[in-house]
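anyone seen this seq b4? input:
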Amino acid sequence: MRVLHVASEVAPFAQSGGLADVVAGLPAAQAQVAETHVGVLVPMYRGVAERLAASGVTLDPGTEMFLSVGPHVFRAALRRATIHRVEHGFVDCAALFDRPGNLYGPGGPAEWPDNHLRFAALGQAALAAGELMLGARHDVLHVHDWQGGPAAIYARLAANPPTIVTTIHNLAYRGIFPKSVMTEVGFPWSVFTSGLVEFYDQVSFLKGALAMSDVVTTVSPSYAKEILTPVFGEALDGFLVHHVKRLVGIVNGIDTDAWDPATDTTLPAPYSAGSPAGKAACKRALADEIGLPLPEDEPLIGVIARMTGQKGLDLVAEIAPELHRLGARLAVLGAGEPDLETQFTYLATTFSEHVYARIGFDIGLARRIYASSDLFVMPSRFEPCGLGQLYAMRYGAIPIVHAVGGLRDTVIDPGDRELARGHGTGITFAPATAPALLEAIERGIALFRDRRAFAALRTSAMSRDSSWTASARDYLQLYASLRM
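predicted toks r here
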């Protein structure tokens, strides 16, 4: 079986969020299966070549491509390299991808005005890339989020399309553009219908991909159910119910080799579920690094997330003044909405003995916060899958999560009595309100003070298998069922 993944980012070479981790981890796990040939096609953004070289990856000289996107023709090259048995193809088109700023815009929330052309070009590249990368035409085209959507649309409109799979990583991002882009990207007006690409008299790249796919997947079973409702469906719930052929939820995994506290070189001391002593050393070292007192008899609560309403960071800010009463400390790492950034900066200044906040992102610091935290809070209002809770469990930080989406599927809270025996993997709460979050944190702190029970729970959480192996197997079985 030949599988081509098409996405806008892949870790660690081009990354803005968790999508890149998935596009790195899932294909690598699939490529371990015999007779499975896997490719990943992504843009060659500014700086990618340097990051590849720094990782010891050598790109080939490239194969010239001319990408026809509506009335536009872009000269590009497909640059290839094999990484972890996966054939990676980077679309090198300076006119579209060699730009400053983040992957999708010049900075902040602003997006490049020609993003429709940029990712339509990626979609056109996918038509030829499978054979160039895998030695023969791919059997399965697996596209990710709205940026991969044009690849699915172009493939369906072409003769003899492959099996097409689209994964929704976050339905809130639907790739919506004015209907004038129909001509710009070369979509026939026959697909501008409510059952295909049309979305309230605009064009949605994601909706088009969903309509053109043989199967749609989401990144957790619960999220697959939630998006069929008006609350989580982002105005596509009716379309998903009536027009999508098949919808399947498969939970994400993580790279358990890259995320392993026993071998993580960014930590001051290694540790594992069977030998946890190094975790206390990590906590002591973090206290020095961030200048926050971290007494051993008080729990450290970690938060690593985008500062947005979706992630529920406003709920964390609301309960932060209670930390002194609770006898707990809080370390926050993230960036996002200016109001939340300002709020956490104020909290860290006002409650400097109990709150630390770093605005921005630092992967090394993130790992050290996971390693040092006793509890880890994720109060997301919605969460397709979430990776933070998986990293937290791997590093022995007990997750406290809103029972929604992938958080519901990956964090098991069997109740206080069983948690105290070390059963389950964390604490869940609902609804997504500050009082409910505060009550869940109080449960976690009570467990922390029962050292024997907390140690058993930590061992249970660290022992959870969060690897990509099971997810990769489920996807390959899904592909095979579609080709029968």
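The chain has a mean pLDDT of 95. Residues 299 and 328 are 5 Å apart (CA to CA). kinda curious what u guys think
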